[in-house]
Amino acid sequence: MARIIVVGGGVVGLCSSLLLAGDGHDVTVLERDPAPPPDPHEAWENWERRGVNQFRLLHYFAPRFRNIIETNLPDVAAAFEAAGALRTNPLREAPAEATGGYRESDAQYEALTARRPVAEAAVASVAARHDQLDVRRGVAVVGLLTSEPRNGIPNVVGVRTDAGDELYADVVIDCAGRRSTLPKWLTEIGAPAPEEKVADSGFVYYGRHFKSADGSVPFAFGPLLMDYGTISTLTLPADNGTWGLGITASASDKAMRRLKDVDAWERVIQAVPLVAHWLEGEPLDENVLVMAKIEDRHRSFVIDDRPLATGVLALADSWACTNPSLGRGISIGMIHALALRELLHNPPGDPVELARAWDVATTATVEPYFAGTMNYDESRLAQVEAEINGIEFEPNDEYEVTRALLVAAGKDPEMLRAYIDLAAVMAPPSEVLERPDVRARALELGGGWRDEPLPGPTRDELVAIVK
After folding, report:
1. 462 part of a folded domain
2. Does one domain contain both 17 and 103?
3. What is the pTM of this model?
């Protein structure tokens, strides 16, 4: 079994480390934030993670995440339950006339979700008890250690910390998330920088959290993410009778920047009939929390079949990250983590082949989810910009079918399940939308999606509301 260093102790970093430790590896997690995780029930009030800019913003753990942890990390699922995480399933909770009745197979769509601090504290409580897992907090990695190159390729054998310590490993896993500085570390050891595609996602989030008096959460009259012209709403149930309520808008939409004002934000929510009742709770945030300048980023670490370096592998958001409004990030990260465990269970003996194998595994398992998410984000932003500017929007084929499927989901139980396959991260868009029965039926029932908007303010009304 291998000695493994994991850089980054967030949800995916800790869950990945638990998967690897459970497979017999000796795993050390290095997390730069020094604050120890509190009891999950105290995490919301008492824990700050300066290294995670979205730590206190809206979060949702999609059903695919619950499927993975219940199957592979049952102690983590139990810790979520003990922390008060919410079990929710749209096919169990929606009217039978919409779902065609609950089926045994619909159990796969059950989510187990919580606010980010609560969820991460729950995972950390499990990690702290594992004999083959050493979590060190307040340890920042500042560079990589190398040995003799392999075929002219730098070979990583460990990391250097800000305290000057040198820690050695057979494999270094970078799971430092959106703020990963792996490209800098690679160039410092003489490796080429990865091929990197980076762009501002173009969206801004305006969110708040609420809590009910009786432990319930508001009823959802539609999907968690709903589009209303040039804005979208997020209604995210969470733990212990809490929920997140948010609005997303284009970063270039100057009129919507007033949404950072609590009164303007509340007026907009009140103007949207399907979500106005989500305001009926005790606010947990005094102000509107804003998240902007969110990067879409993709990194390639094998170019023309030649790894940039060996001995170091990028995982989850350190490899690729997108606008988080679709709630896919942590589930995609866990799919990636399962692929990593599978690869390291019986890895190639040659470090060069290991790097190549990881690139192949990444392309096969998570690249389709990234590509589908990017297409949706770019298309949705183009749709918003077109409406702001009063011009016609011409979507590409995948987005056209996706929008049609969303409308068809309200008319046909099979289309509803196909749509939830997308939203729950059960299958990538490229797979779901190309199913012959899905594509044809979606276009038949939802091809007029432009003429079937959700009830809400027009663009002119919206601008007037936020003034």
Report:
1. no
2. yes
3. 0.96
